[in-house]
Specification:
This protein has a five-stranded mixed β-sheet. Among the domains are: 36 residues, no CATH class; 162 residues, no CATH class. With 309 residues, the chain is α+β, with helices and mostly antiparallel strands. The relative contact order is 0.13. Helix 6 crosses helix 7. The structure holds zinc ion (ZN) (2 copies). The site of one zinc ion has 7 residues, from loops. It holds the Pfam family MZB. Keywords: ATP-binding, Helicase, Hydrolase, Nucleotide-binding. InterPro entries: MZB (IPR018973).
């Protein structure tokens, strides 16, 4: 009863809204929470300070470690900054002179998921799928520098020290069987591409925004797709319910493109932690075709291999 009254009050004040049977904070609600420190699960923030000591803004974690690692080019209020340091919850940036040729940076990172509690479980085309609470650890270990706007890779660098951030959220775990006739690398290429395609499909099937969901795949066929915001947002719960449609759409995305083996129109993602490498559109299409034809044996397997985001 107390919770119900609180929710009604937040709805009437326009801080919460109802959408698709879920309660979500409104833009105003999110701004309200951001003004307040120490509300767990809503996103801890990094303070962005210039080398002359001026605070120019804040960025939530985990996004902050992907955008403000030392060496990152950070765009803010129409200006270009270079991050020189990220320590704890403070990033120090330096203004880049306007005449410098424009470049952008993308982080190289991986994600280590660990499932904690199973809330729901079902089979999708015979494949075991669970809806779980999980802890996600994002680890940024390097970055690529690209020309802008062409996107040509100029250089690839490793960070002196890895940056990591862990948070709890909710998500789904799909356990596809790996292909015995494929090598571990070929399986990694297929499942990484399936993961990208499912996140893309979710934008159309459940109306997710490009940054609502995170994903990580293993060459063993394990794919996690989770709410990217600490605490969870309910988007992966909707995907869990609509997964048949999302898999069918992911098959369309991977089978209909006419590119060689992956391109920005099908499976490339600007949020990939691996610079869109180890990614095969053709293998993903072959695998998803077999899933839809109910040709894959559904046995739960042990997770192995390196996580690819
Ligand atoms: Zn393509
Ligand atoms: Zn990726």
């Amino acid at each position: 009863e107390f919770e119900r009254r609180v929710v009604l009050r937040l709805l009437s004040e326009g801080l919460l809204k109802q959408s698709g049977g879920y309660l979500r904070p409104t833009r105003r609600g999110i701004a309200f929470l951001r003004e307040r420190d120490n509300i767990r699960g809503v996103g801890e923030q990094v303070r962005i300070v210039t080398d002359t000591g001026k605070v120019i803004g804040y960025r939530e974690l985990p996004q902050a470690i992907k955008e403000l690692f030392p060496g990152a080019v950070y765009l803010h209020a129409g200006r270009t900054y270079l991050s020189v340091k990220l320590e704890g919850k403070r990033a120090v940036v330096k203004l880049v002179p306007a005449k410098t040729p424009p470049v952008v940076t993308s982080p190289l990172y991986y994600t280590m998921p660990s499932e904690e509690e199973v809330h729901n479980e079902r089979r999708v085309y015979g494949i075991p799928v669970r809806y779980v609470t999980l802890t996600v650890q994002d680890v940024v270990y390097g970055y690529v520098v690209k020309s802008f706007p062409e996107g040509q890779v100029i250089s690839q660098r490793l960070l002196e020290g890895e940056l990591s951030y862990s948070f709890r959220t909710k998500g789904i775990l799909i356990e596809f069987p790996p292909r015995v006739e494929w090598t571990e690398l070929q399986n990694a290429e297929a499942f990484h591409a399936v993961e990208h395609a499912l996140i893309y499909a979710a934008q159309m099937i459940v109306g997710a925004s490009p940054t609502d969901l995170g994903g990580v795949s293993f060459p063993s066929g394990h794919i996690f797709i989770y709410d990217a915001f600490p605490g969870g947002s309910g988007v992966s719960a909707r995907l869990f319910a609509e997964l048949e449609k999302a898999i069918a759409r992911a098959f369309d995305i991977t089978s209909r493109c006419t590119c060689e083996d992956g391109c920005p129109r099908c499976i490339f993602s600007p949020y990939c932690g691996n610079n869109n490498k180890i990614l095969s559109r053709r293998r993903a299409a072959e695998l998803l075709g077999d899933v839809l034809a109910l040709r894959l044996a559904a046995t739960r397997t042990e997770r192995f291999g390196k996580p690819i985001v």
